């Protein structure tokens, strides 16, 4: 919120007014007139300086290149620009260039009476306007009224280019820059650009490491005051912003606003190059870079480039091996908090994402999306080396490594190599002898939750993956995929358990796992009640 003191007019007494009027009466007969314009001056010295106002700004500051018409203006500016000769208040951060006006409440001095007037205002006016719905406080009633609009949901400022509405005119102005992609404030230390100066100022603190806002309850420090305010709610457990449609509560009002869009389905930010729509303006900006191919965030340790800063930060953790997010139930570590949250669902069995076409449930929304593609028969990712098709790009990437034998993930305890990271993680648990996932129906134990899920299908007899070329059914999609190769392959390597033929020995070995994998454990049938 804009919480600056409003400019108060300087009130003069009637005696001062009369004195001024009397003085002007005596001086009236000896005014000096400009030959260039109709202006008049009280003395000849002022008249000598006056013609410079008709010329260009010839006095330039060496520090910031600002230009002035008068040398005296430059002198005052130079002191402010360089910080020399400033007299600072012990009560606040006010600094002025000369000692013409003194504050009687603090040691502050000012060269201008209006500056002094505003300074005194900071001593007198406290944040006396309190919000009765949250802990926010304001120095001005107008700021409080503007803040209350956010609680009430009032948004009188409407964008004329999209349905977006705002509670403040400043927010509308910032929003309108999303339509023009205007980012006039550029960081001179990195490629970052911003729509308004305040964000650039906060961003610069990331480079300097400056965190002036310190928590008095823990060592946490913050770049700006709002973050400190929200942080303190964590200590108190306060979540003042409540959703009236579900039990969700939030520390920040902006989080509540974004959350409400999930209920309403509102996506006010639309891409003008494709049908994509977004709930946040920054998501739209990031999306547009996919169309333009722009990747302004470059890794200084390798040639990698990224379209958003968060991806660069995650990538850099890979270089240093940093995985700050640790699971407290198993040895798993992650570079992203979201990955840890998804992983924990494997321990708890939580699957909040439900398919509306079958009883299937998933721990991640993207898994549900891929599953729905299976209902629709969608497999947009096709291998150009074999008939394999996939509903997800990552699966195709892992699959292609089988053709190339590329195994970039190497175990540091043995010569084993793997085509993707999860396999290496599961393998390392074997070295540690850890199998945290136990079957409740037999003594089987597993290193990974997915393996336990597949194993349980042996007990239930569930085989959800059916071949569309023969009656075969399978517990795993990979088993079905390997089976399909048998239909299209014709080679010298024959399976001695069925009629399948393969062009290479490794394919035959993979195929044989279909026959053996489902006989690894003594099956205890689930009793029907």
From TrEMBL:
It holds the Pfam family zf-C2H2. Residues 9-22 have a biased composition (Polar residues). One of its GO terms (biological process) is regulation of transcription by RNA polymerase II. It is found in: Nucleus. SUPFAM superfamilies: beta-beta-alpha zinc fingers. Residues 59-86, 129-156, 157-184, 185-212, 213-240, 241-268, 269-296, 297-324, 325-352, 353-380, 381-408, 409-436, 437-464, 465-492, 493-520 form the C2H2-type domain. Belongs to the krueppel C2H2-type zinc-finger protein family. Keywords: DNA-binding, Metal-binding, Nucleus, Repeat, Transcription, Transcription regulation, Zinc, Zinc-finger. SMART domains: ZnF_C2H2 (SM00355). The keyword Repressor does not apply. GO terms for molecular function: chromatin binding; DNA-binding transcription factor activity; RNA polymerase II cis-regulatory region sequence-specific DNA binding; zinc ion binding. One of its GO terms (cellular component) is nucleus. This is Putative regulation of transcription. Residues 1-25 are annotated as: Disordered. The keyword Transmembrane helix does not apply.
